[in-house]
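Running this now, will post back.
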Amino acid sequence: MSVSAPVARVLERIASGESVPVACAAEGVRVQPDVIVDAHYDGKPVCTVTLPWVIDGHALLFADESVAAAIADDRLAAMASALAMPVCIIRHASAPAA
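Update: finished.
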């Protein structure tokens, strides 16, 4: 996945423990909380999903490091393929700060 330099810096800040709104504000990047989108299967919408954050058009998903990496990667890959937008994934030891 290719992201702009400001989005990459936001992702680095968040991965370092900074909150999503603070990281986005510091880099001047547009952020939207609790975005509802359609998830698709075989090109058809199947359900709605609430994304915790959308940063400059990229869905931001968090992977809990306590879940086995292979399982988390499979789940996140399935979610990413169902969304009609680019997906950024950050691994965290626990739920990130809001």
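The chain has a mean pLDDT of 87. More later if anyone needs it.
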